[in-house]
Amino acid sequence: MITVMVFFSVFLVLLPIFIFFCYEIKFNAVFQLNPEAKAVSKAALGTLLGGTGYFYGQSKISTPPSSNQKLGDNFISYWPAELYTAVPSQPFFPRGFLWDEGFHQLLIWHWDVHISLDIIGHWLDLMNIEGWIPREQILGAEALSKVPAEFVLQYPTDGNPPTLFLVLRDLMCSIKKNQFAATERNEISIFLDQAFIRLEAWFNWFNTTQSGKIASTYFWHGRDNATIRELNPKTLSSGLDDYPRASHPSEDECHLDLRCWM
Ligand SMILES: *[C@@H]1O[C@H](CO)[C@@H](O)[C@H](O)[C@H]1NC(C)=O
Ligand SMILES: *[C@@H]1O[C@H](CO)[C@@H](O)[C@H](O)[C@H]1NC(C)=O
């Protein structure tokens, strides 16, 4: 019995050391950084990977107001869905954010492209028939417990920057530069083939629902034109929440950042 306990204690002490060295070795192989940058980069990547989680539940989707509506009856539930995602912060934002994910995966794919494809695939599976993806994924009780009531509902009229395209572009460039082994190259190509129809639907959703009054202009929908609490109402759907825009939100706006995304 004692030998078993000693063995077990030694194992428990050695395991983190072993994991630490594995992380160190792989980190050095994947990222070539100078010593000052390395310490902070290792911590950042570790937090990002450690914050990656699996969620399951149903988003609440806002429905347009109607006359025969009962109180609290202003949403319908999205289908029960799962999401594998890297979250911005486990204690404060334990939920998936669409545009954050692109930036997370710009880093994670270098570490393990399979994790990235899995995560991007989960997001594309959340697209509805119109080509819209809910921006914040509040799936399950834990995620819901951290969201102020006014941010729970998702609006099918509002977008969020399609940053996942940045990752897919990165992957395609790396394939062209022969940076993947043959099997990985195949897996990525198959993924892109399968994803194409959804990526096209995503583009078309933006091109039709977020277009402006003048040809080839676009604007982020969803700004609050009735608020008396903000001099310059926020544009949460753009990701650049408080970037200064027209003081009086209207359909006459043209947003350069969305035009650039398009
Ligand atoms: C985007 O929308 C415009 C305006 O309706 C249309 O002319 C254009 O063909 C669309 N672009 C694509 C690539 O479908
Ligand atoms: C706000 O926008 C809605 C929808 O476009 C419009 O019906 C309403 O008149 C606008 N309100 C103000 C104060 O501009």
Automatic annotation (TrEMBL):
The keyword Nucleotide-binding does not apply. The chain crosses the membrane at residues 6-23. It holds the Pfam family Glyco_hydro_63. Residues 25-262 form the Glycosyl hydrolase family 63 C-terminal domain. The keyword Transport does not apply. Keywords: Membrane, Transmembrane, Transmembrane helix. GO terms for biological process: oligosaccharide metabolic process; protein N-linked glycosylation. One of its GO terms (molecular function) is Glc3Man9GlcNAc2 oligosaccharide glucosidase activity. GO terms for cellular component: endoplasmic reticulum membrane. PANTHER family: MANNOSYL-OLIGOSACCHARIDE GLUCOSIDASE (PTHR10412), MANNOSYL-OLIGOSACCHARIDE GLUCOSIDASE GCS1 (PTHR10412:SF20). This is Mannosyl-oligosaccharide glucosidase GCS1. It comes from Olea europaea subsp. europaea.
